[in-house]
Design goal:
Layout lengths: L3 E13 L4 E13 L3 E5 L6 H8 L8 E9 L2 E2 L5 H7 L4 E4 L3 H4 L6 H12 L4 H14 L5 H4 L9 H13 L5 E5 L7 H18 L2 E6 L2 H7 L2 E6 L2 E7 H6 L4 H8 L40 H5 L5 E3 L2 E3 L4 H18 L1
Parallel strand pairs: 3-8, 3-9, 6-7, 7-8
Antiparallel strand pairs: 1-2, 1-4, 4-5, 9-10, 10-12, 11-12
């Protein structure tokens, strides 16, 4: 069994604004094991990226306050000095950002940007770092890496820039890779290639991986465990097959029903979860999903549920057992009428 690599324990992330303090991440807990790919999913504004950036402490700490613990190989990252974090960041923990064009420096060649991390963290000479950078570009499948290493980001396609970001992230052989929407704005073929690359490199280096995404197709293809977030909280956590076969939380069920399917009535409108994610200044009392939930009761509107264990999974919902039972009865009825 793989050992625990990362353990997030009751993480809260507060931002100090001009008006008041707002909480972007509230009591988030989950683990990542060596060699495991964990998908973190939810709509925009649910706290996925803030959680991932908190692991590396990339947020402006003048206006950010943390509570809880982020344990990496047993060490609480939130208690480390800025100097210690710089030693870990890009070396032991690496991140692929959502938009490679804005993440890569336009005035430096891609080779210089990969070499910088190698020279800083691995103490390689410039010549050694260049050879390693070429090797990493070749590993990610970029054609003619000896030529591409001297090109600037604008000279590369979107897929190549994303591969450069992966090469940069993996150049120091990190134990943990965080990929924030790694296939956004890429065509389907390139998206598949990038996902296959992440899977193969994870297997080769036994690397723990977090995939931040809103695309449940990616989750089904690449992840072994899923963490579903809503308005800064984890509302469901389970292995990927359980999430897709028997989602327990109404929000998770809504996300899955929103996926278009090849079969069925082509003229039927796609399912849409009613309402929208509230702002951090308008967090509702009780269950945060209650204003959008078709199963919400008065208890849901006034009392906040906790994240509780249910077998091998976790769920934050007062009524999930009743919802699950009604869903089973509906499915039985459909089977009998078929």
């Amino acid at each position: 069994m793989n050992e625990t690599l990362l353990e997030i324990v009751n993480l809260k992330v507060h931002f100090d604004t001009e008006d008041k303090r707002v909480t972007a991440v509230d009591d988030v807990s989950f683990t990542v094991n060596n060699g495991e790919i964990v998908g973190v999913v939810g709509e925009s504004g649910c706290g996925k990226s803030v959680t991932s950036e908190s692991i590396l402490r990339l947020l402006d700490e003048k206006h950010t306050n943390y509570e809880g613990e982020i344990r990496f190989n047993g060490r609480n990252l939130l208690s480390l000095s800025p100097k210690k974090m710089r030693e870990i960041r890009g070396n032991d923990i690496a991140m692929i950002f959502q938009d490679p064009m804005s993440s890569l420096n336009p005035v430096y060649t891609v080779g210089n940007q990969i070499q910088e991390a190698l020279m800083l963290h691995q103490n390689l000479s410039k010549a050694e770092a260049r050879m390693k950078a070429i090797e990493m570009l070749k590993l990610t499948g970029i054609p003619a890496p000896e030529k591409r290493i001297d090109e600037f980001p604008h000279q590369l396609s979107g897929g190549m820039r994303q591969r450069v970001m992966i090469a940069m992230a993996l150049s120091c052989n990190p134990s943990l890779l965080i990929a924030d929407e790694p296939t956004t704005a890429l065509d389907v073929t390139t998206q598949s290639q990038i996902l296959d690359l992440i899977k193969s490199l994870k297997d080769e280096f036994n690397m723990g991986t977090i995939i931040i995404t809103h695309d449940l197709g990616i989750v089904a293809e690449i992840c072994s465990k899923v963490v579903v977030m809503y308005l800064g909280q984890v509302i469901e956590e389970a292995d990927v097959s359980s999430i897709f076969e028997t989602p327990l939380h109404p929000y998770t069920q809504g996300l899955l029903k929103s996926i278009p399917h090849m079969e069925g009535n082509r003229n039927e409108k796609l399912y849409v979860i009613k309402g929208k994610v509230p702002t951090l200044n308008q967090v509702p009392p009780g269950c945060r999903f209650a204003p959008r939930c078709e199963f919400a009761t008065e208890k849901c509107k006034v009392s906040a549920p906790i994240l509780e264990s249910y077998g091998e999974r976790k769920i934050r919902c007062w009524n999930f057992k009743e919802i699950q039972e009604s869903s089973i009865q509906v499915n039985r009825g459909e089977t009998l009428n078929a």
